[in-house]
Amino acid sequence: MRSTAVDAYIMETLLPTLVGRDRQPSAFIVYLYLWHRAAATRSRSLAASLQTIALDTGLSKSAVQRGVRTLLRRRLIHVEKESAPAVPGYTVRGPWLRR
Edge-to-edge strands of the sheet including 45-47? Predict the structure, then answer.
């Protein structure tokens, strides 16, 4: 099993904001999942279906959809899709990080 470093901002700011204030624990779980998977690619991008994310996290597909919507609204991820039936590509953003 490999480990992934998680920025302190994620635990100290994002966790209380998404789970406490926004009442969207699914958004936090989806973000952590995407962060971990993208870290393996070193490009912060990955392709994954909603069903795959649901199966891997234990969330329902609708909870994943709500989480993705919240993350998009907060600009913590970017989603690209070639066509309607295509698997979306996610880019995980860390707006607090200096580039």
Answer: 45-47, 89-92, 77-80
